[in-house]
User: Fold Ectoine hydroxylase from Alloalcanivorax gelatiniphagus.
Amino acid sequence: MSSEDLFPTRMEQDRKPFPRLDPVIHARNQDRWNGPLGEESLSRYERDGFLWFEGFFSQERMRPFFDELNEMAKDTELVKSDQVITDPDSGDLRSVFDMHRISKRFDALTRDPRILGMVRQLLGGDVYIHQSRINDKFGFQGSGFQWHSDFETWHSEDGMPRMRAVSASIMLTDNNEFNGPLMLIPGSHHYFVPCHGKTPEDNWKDSLKSQRVGVPSQENLRTMVNQGGIQAPKGPPGSLLLFECNTLHASNKNLSPWPRANLFFVYNSVDNGLEKPYGGTDARPGFLANRDDTAALSMYDNLEPL
Ligand code: 6CS
Ligand code: FE
Assistant:
Protein backbone atom coordinates (compact mmCIF):
# COMPACT_ATOMS: atom_id res chain seq x y z
CA MET A 1 0.00 0.00 0.00
CA SER A 2 1.17 3.52 -0.76
CA SER A 3 1.04 6.05 2.06
CA GLU A 4 -0.79 5.75 5.39
CA ASP A 5 -4.51 5.20 4.94
CA LEU A 6 -6.24 8.12 6.66
CA PHE A 7 -9.71 7.04 5.49
CA PRO A 8 -10.06 3.33 6.23
CA THR A 9 -13.23 1.77 4.79
CA ARG A 10 -14.66 -1.49 3.42
CA MET A 11 -13.89 -3.29 6.67
CA GLU A 12 -15.53 -6.21 8.45
CA GLN A 13 -17.32 -4.13 11.05
CA ASP A 14 -19.35 -0.94 10.75
CA ARG A 15 -17.57 2.17 12.06
CA LYS A 16 -18.88 5.55 13.07
CA PRO A 17 -18.41 8.59 10.82
CA PHE A 18 -15.46 10.82 11.74
CA PRO A 19 -14.72 14.46 10.83
CA ARG A 20 -13.05 15.06 7.47
CA LEU A 21 -9.37 15.94 7.71
CA ASP A 22 -9.17 18.30 4.76
CA PRO A 23 -10.44 21.81 4.16
CA VAL A 24 -13.57 22.15 2.01
CA ILE A 25 -12.20 25.20 0.22
CA HIS A 26 -8.55 24.73 -0.50
CA ALA A 27 -7.55 28.24 -1.63
CA ARG A 28 -5.51 29.86 1.16
CA ASN A 29 -5.60 33.42 2.49
CA GLN A 30 -6.49 36.10 -0.05
CA ASP A 31 -6.69 33.46 -2.81
CA ARG A 32 -10.05 32.45 -1.39
CA TRP A 33 -11.56 35.46 -3.18
CA ASN A 34 -9.45 35.09 -6.30
CA GLY A 35 -12.12 33.67 -8.63
CA PRO A 36 -15.72 34.01 -9.76
CA LEU A 37 -17.37 32.82 -6.51
CA GLY A 38 -18.35 35.46 -3.97
CA GLU A 39 -18.20 34.94 -0.22
CA GLU A 40 -21.89 34.03 0.03
CA SER A 41 -21.46 31.13 -2.42
CA LEU A 42 -18.17 30.06 -0.87
CA SER A 43 -19.74 29.90 2.59
CA ARG A 44 -22.71 27.95 1.28
CA TYR A 45 -20.43 25.42 -0.43
CA GLU A 46 -18.43 25.10 2.76
CA ARG A 47 -21.60 24.50 4.79
CA ASP A 48 -23.61 22.27 2.40
CA GLY A 49 -20.97 20.62 0.19
CA PHE A 50 -22.62 21.75 -3.04
CA LEU A 51 -23.80 24.73 -5.08
CA TRP A 52 -26.71 24.78 -7.50
CA PHE A 53 -26.89 27.12 -10.51
CA GLU A 54 -30.28 26.89 -12.18
CA GLY A 55 -30.03 27.59 -15.93
CA PHE A 56 -26.27 28.18 -15.83
CA PHE A 57 -26.05 27.47 -19.58
CA SER A 58 -28.87 28.06 -22.04
CA GLN A 59 -30.97 25.08 -23.15
CA GLU A 60 -29.82 25.68 -26.76
CA ARG A 61 -26.20 25.34 -25.68
CA MET A 62 -26.94 21.89 -24.25
CA ARG A 63 -28.77 20.47 -27.27
CA PRO A 64 -25.67 19.37 -29.29
CA PHE A 65 -24.37 17.52 -26.21
CA PHE A 66 -27.63 15.62 -25.78
CA ASP A 67 -27.72 14.90 -29.54
CA GLU A 68 -24.17 13.55 -29.36
CA LEU A 69 -25.16 11.31 -26.45
CA ASN A 70 -28.07 9.92 -28.46
CA GLU A 71 -25.70 9.23 -31.39
CA MET A 72 -23.39 7.37 -29.01
CA ALA A 73 -26.29 5.28 -27.73
CA LYS A 74 -26.79 4.08 -31.33
CA ASP A 75 -23.11 3.23 -31.82
CA THR A 76 -23.18 -0.54 -31.22
CA GLU A 77 -19.37 -0.86 -31.07
CA LEU A 78 -19.14 1.84 -28.41
CA VAL A 79 -22.08 0.44 -26.42
CA LYS A 80 -20.34 -2.97 -26.32
CA SER A 81 -17.11 -1.47 -24.97
CA ASP A 82 -16.23 -1.48 -21.27
CA GLN A 83 -16.58 2.27 -20.95
CA VAL A 84 -20.29 2.10 -21.61
CA ILE A 85 -22.30 0.67 -18.72
CA THR A 86 -25.74 -0.72 -19.49
CA ASP A 87 -28.77 -0.64 -17.25
CA PRO A 88 -29.12 -3.77 -15.08
CA ASP A 89 -32.86 -4.05 -15.85
CA SER A 90 -33.43 -2.73 -19.35
CA GLY A 91 -29.98 -3.31 -20.94
CA ASP A 92 -30.07 0.24 -22.33
CA LEU A 93 -27.23 2.68 -21.96
CA ARG A 94 -26.76 3.83 -18.34
CA SER A 95 -23.35 5.53 -18.24
CA VAL A 96 -20.69 6.53 -20.73
CA PHE A 97 -17.23 7.21 -19.30
CA ASP A 98 -14.40 9.34 -20.67
CA MET A 99 -16.70 11.60 -22.69
CA HIS A 100 -14.08 14.31 -22.85
CA ARG A 101 -11.64 11.96 -24.56
CA ILE A 102 -14.19 10.74 -27.09
CA SER A 103 -15.50 14.14 -28.10
CA LYS A 104 -13.93 17.56 -28.67
CA ARG A 105 -17.16 19.27 -27.73
CA PHE A 106 -17.12 17.64 -24.29
CA ASP A 107 -13.40 18.30 -23.88
CA ALA A 108 -13.98 22.01 -24.55
CA LEU A 109 -16.80 22.06 -21.98
CA THR A 110 -14.45 20.69 -19.28
CA ARG A 111 -12.39 23.82 -19.89
CA ASP A 112 -15.26 26.31 -19.86
CA PRO A 113 -13.74 29.42 -18.23
CA ARG A 114 -16.62 29.99 -15.82
CA ILE A 115 -16.59 26.40 -14.55
CA LEU A 116 -12.83 26.05 -14.47
CA GLY A 117 -12.53 29.40 -12.67
CA MET A 118 -14.85 28.26 -9.87
CA VAL A 119 -13.25 24.82 -9.61
CA ARG A 120 -9.74 26.27 -9.34
CA GLN A 121 -10.95 28.64 -6.67
CA LEU A 122 -12.47 25.79 -4.63
CA LEU A 123 -9.51 23.43 -5.05
CA GLY A 124 -6.87 26.13 -4.62
CA GLY A 125 -4.95 25.87 -7.90
CA ASP A 126 -4.55 23.81 -11.04
CA VAL A 127 -6.75 20.80 -11.74
CA TYR A 128 -7.11 17.92 -14.19
CA ILE A 129 -10.00 15.59 -15.05
CA HIS A 130 -10.06 12.51 -12.83
CA GLN A 131 -13.19 11.05 -14.45
CA SER A 132 -15.88 12.17 -16.89
CA ARG A 133 -19.19 10.50 -17.50
CA ILE A 134 -22.82 10.82 -18.51
CA ASN A 135 -25.49 9.10 -16.51
CA ASP A 136 -28.55 8.57 -18.65
CA LYS A 137 -31.82 7.31 -17.21
CA PHE A 138 -34.34 6.47 -19.88
CA GLY A 139 -38.01 7.18 -19.25
CA PHE A 140 -39.90 4.46 -17.35
CA GLN A 141 -36.84 2.32 -16.82
CA GLY A 142 -33.61 4.07 -15.77
CA SER A 143 -32.43 2.49 -12.49
CA GLY A 144 -31.28 4.54 -9.53
CA PHE A 145 -27.96 4.96 -7.72
CA GLN A 146 -27.44 3.89 -4.09
CA TRP A 147 -26.27 6.35 -1.42
CA HIS A 148 -22.52 6.88 -1.56
CA SER A 149 -19.67 9.34 -1.27
CA ASP A 150 -17.63 9.40 -4.49
CA PHE A 151 -14.48 10.06 -2.47
CA GLU A 152 -15.00 6.84 -0.50
CA THR A 153 -14.79 4.89 -3.79
CA TRP A 154 -12.02 6.97 -5.34
CA HIS A 155 -9.89 6.68 -2.21
CA SER A 156 -10.42 2.98 -1.66
CA GLU A 157 -10.57 1.73 -5.26
CA ASP A 158 -8.47 4.36 -7.07
CA GLY A 159 -5.96 5.64 -4.50
CA MET A 160 -7.12 9.26 -4.37
CA PRO A 161 -5.23 10.44 -1.27
CA ARG A 162 -7.24 13.41 0.04
CA MET A 163 -10.57 15.18 -0.29
CA ARG A 164 -9.49 17.69 -2.89
CA ALA A 165 -11.77 17.03 -5.85
CA VAL A 166 -15.07 18.49 -7.04
CA SER A 167 -17.69 17.25 -9.51
CA ALA A 168 -19.40 19.57 -11.96
CA SER A 169 -22.68 18.03 -13.02
CA ILE A 170 -24.42 19.64 -15.97
CA MET A 171 -28.03 18.73 -16.70
CA LEU A 172 -28.58 17.71 -20.31
CA THR A 173 -32.32 17.26 -19.75
CA ASP A 174 -34.81 18.69 -17.33
CA ASN A 175 -34.33 17.30 -13.79
CA ASN A 176 -37.61 17.21 -11.89
CA GLU A 177 -39.18 15.36 -8.96
CA PHE A 178 -40.40 12.55 -11.22
CA ASN A 179 -37.39 11.54 -13.29
CA GLY A 180 -34.93 10.55 -10.57
CA PRO A 181 -32.97 13.73 -9.85
CA LEU A 182 -29.80 13.63 -7.78
CA MET A 183 -30.45 13.81 -4.02
CA LEU A 184 -27.76 15.17 -1.72
CA ILE A 185 -27.32 15.24 2.05
CA PRO A 186 -26.26 18.79 2.94
CA GLY A 187 -23.33 18.86 5.37
CA SER A 188 -22.47 15.16 4.94
CA HIS A 189 -19.13 16.12 3.34
CA HIS A 190 -17.92 17.18 6.80
CA TYR A 191 -17.63 13.51 7.82
CA PHE A 192 -15.94 10.49 6.36
CA VAL A 193 -18.45 7.66 6.60
CA PRO A 194 -16.63 4.31 6.58
CA CYS A 195 -18.49 1.54 4.79
CA HIS A 196 -18.46 -2.09 5.60
CA GLY A 197 -17.76 -5.10 3.38
CA LYS A 198 -14.70 -6.18 1.43
CA THR A 199 -14.32 -4.94 -2.14
CA PRO A 200 -14.37 -7.83 -4.64
CA GLU A 201 -11.81 -7.76 -7.51
CA ASP A 202 -13.27 -6.09 -10.62
CA ASN A 203 -15.96 -4.59 -8.41
CA TRP A 204 -16.59 -1.83 -10.96
CA LYS A 205 -18.16 -4.29 -13.39
CA ASP A 206 -21.05 -4.67 -10.94
CA SER A 207 -20.86 -1.49 -8.89
CA LEU A 208 -21.49 0.81 -11.85
CA LYS A 209 -24.71 -1.05 -12.61
CA SER A 210 -25.82 -1.45 -9.03
CA GLN A 211 -23.61 -0.56 -6.09
CA ARG A 212 -23.30 -2.89 -3.05
CA VAL A 213 -20.00 -2.14 -1.29
CA GLY A 214 -19.25 1.50 -0.57
CA VAL A 215 -22.84 2.12 0.56
CA PRO A 216 -23.01 3.50 4.15
CA SER A 217 -25.04 1.60 6.75
CA GLN A 218 -28.63 2.69 7.31
CA GLU A 219 -27.68 3.79 10.81
CA ASN A 220 -24.94 6.11 9.53
CA LEU A 221 -27.16 7.42 6.73
CA ARG A 222 -29.93 8.16 9.21
CA THR A 223 -27.52 10.13 11.38
CA MET A 224 -26.39 12.19 8.39
CA VAL A 225 -29.94 12.84 7.13
CA ASN A 226 -31.19 13.72 10.62
CA GLN A 227 -28.51 16.40 10.74
CA GLY A 228 -28.69 17.81 7.22
CA GLY A 229 -31.89 16.61 5.55
CA ILE A 230 -32.03 15.78 1.85
CA GLN A 231 -32.11 18.17 -1.08
CA ALA A 232 -32.79 17.41 -4.74
CA PRO A 233 -31.99 20.42 -6.93
CA LYS A 234 -34.32 20.68 -9.90
CA GLY A 235 -34.12 22.70 -13.09
CA PRO A 236 -33.97 22.87 -16.88
CA PRO A 237 -31.20 21.60 -19.18
CA GLY A 238 -28.07 23.70 -18.70
CA SER A 239 -28.40 23.83 -14.91
CA LEU A 240 -25.15 23.15 -13.06
CA LEU A 241 -24.37 21.45 -9.77
CA LEU A 242 -20.93 21.70 -8.20
CA PHE A 243 -20.51 19.14 -5.45
CA GLU A 244 -17.67 18.30 -3.16
CA CYS A 245 -16.22 14.81 -3.66
CA ASN A 246 -17.29 13.60 -0.20
CA THR A 247 -20.93 14.77 -0.23
CA LEU A 248 -23.30 11.81 0.15
CA HIS A 249 -25.71 11.44 -2.76
CA ALA A 250 -28.08 8.98 -4.45
CA SER A 251 -30.92 8.95 -6.95
CA ASN A 252 -34.14 7.07 -7.53
CA LYS A 253 -35.32 5.09 -10.50
CA ASN A 254 -36.89 7.13 -13.29
CA LEU A 255 -40.60 6.27 -13.31
CA SER A 256 -41.56 9.23 -15.51
CA PRO A 257 -41.78 9.05 -19.31
CA TRP A 258 -39.00 11.65 -19.62
CA PRO A 259 -35.28 10.91 -19.87
CA ARG A 260 -32.88 12.23 -17.26
CA ALA A 261 -29.36 12.70 -18.57
CA ASN A 262 -26.66 14.39 -16.50
CA LEU A 263 -23.07 15.00 -17.42
CA PHE A 264 -20.32 14.82 -14.78
CA PHE A 265 -16.80 16.15 -14.93
CA VAL A 266 -14.69 15.32 -11.90
CA TYR A 267 -11.86 17.76 -11.28
CA ASN A 268 -8.98 16.75 -9.06
CA SER A 269 -6.19 18.99 -7.79
CA VAL A 270 -2.86 18.38 -9.57
CA ASP A 271 -1.44 18.05 -6.03
CA ASN A 272 -3.76 15.14 -5.24
CA GLY A 273 -2.70 12.64 -7.91
CA LEU A 274 -3.65 8.97 -7.56
CA GLU A 275 -1.59 6.48 -5.58
CA LYS A 276 -2.12 2.74 -5.35
CA PRO A 277 -5.72 1.92 -4.31
CA TYR A 278 -5.90 2.13 -0.51
CA GLY A 279 -8.29 -0.83 -0.33
CA GLY A 280 -5.66 -3.14 -1.81
CA THR A 281 -7.49 -4.07 -5.03
CA ASP A 282 -5.96 -3.65 -8.51
CA ALA A 283 -6.13 -0.19 -10.05
CA ARG A 284 -9.31 0.38 -12.08
CA PRO A 285 -9.19 1.14 -15.82
CA GLY A 286 -8.07 4.63 -16.93
CA PHE A 287 -11.53 5.59 -18.17
CA LEU A 288 -12.73 5.42 -14.54
CA ALA A 289 -9.65 6.79 -12.83
CA ASN A 290 -7.32 8.77 -15.03
CA ARG A 291 -3.62 8.38 -14.21
CA ASP A 292 -2.07 9.37 -17.57
CA ASP A 293 -3.50 12.64 -18.62
CA THR A 294 -2.93 14.73 -15.51
CA ALA A 295 -1.50 17.98 -16.91
CA ALA A 296 -3.19 21.13 -15.60
CA LEU A 297 -6.24 22.09 -17.69
CA SER A 298 -6.16 25.37 -19.54
CA MET A 299 -9.26 27.41 -20.27
CA TYR A 300 -11.04 26.90 -23.59
CA ASP A 301 -10.63 30.15 -25.44
CA ASN A 302 -13.38 29.85 -28.07
CA LEU A 303 -10.92 30.00 -30.94
CA GLU A 304 -10.03 26.33 -30.86
CA PRO A 305 -12.09 24.46 -33.48
CA LEU A 306 -14.74 22.05 -32.18
O1 6CS B 1 -17.18 4.19 -9.16
C1 6CS B 1 -17.18 5.35 -9.55
O2 6CS B 1 -16.14 5.96 -9.76
C2 6CS B 1 -18.49 6.01 -9.77
N1 6CS B 1 -19.58 5.48 -9.10
C3 6CS B 1 -20.54 6.18 -8.62
C4 6CS B 1 -21.76 5.51 -8.14
N2 6CS B 1 -20.44 7.51 -8.51
C5 6CS B 1 -19.21 8.15 -8.85
C6 6CS B 1 -18.38 7.47 -9.83
O3 6CS B 1 -18.71 7.80 -11.15
FE1 FE C 1 -21.56 9.38 -7.34
About this structure: The domain at 18-269 is CATH 2.60.120.620 (Jelly Rolls).
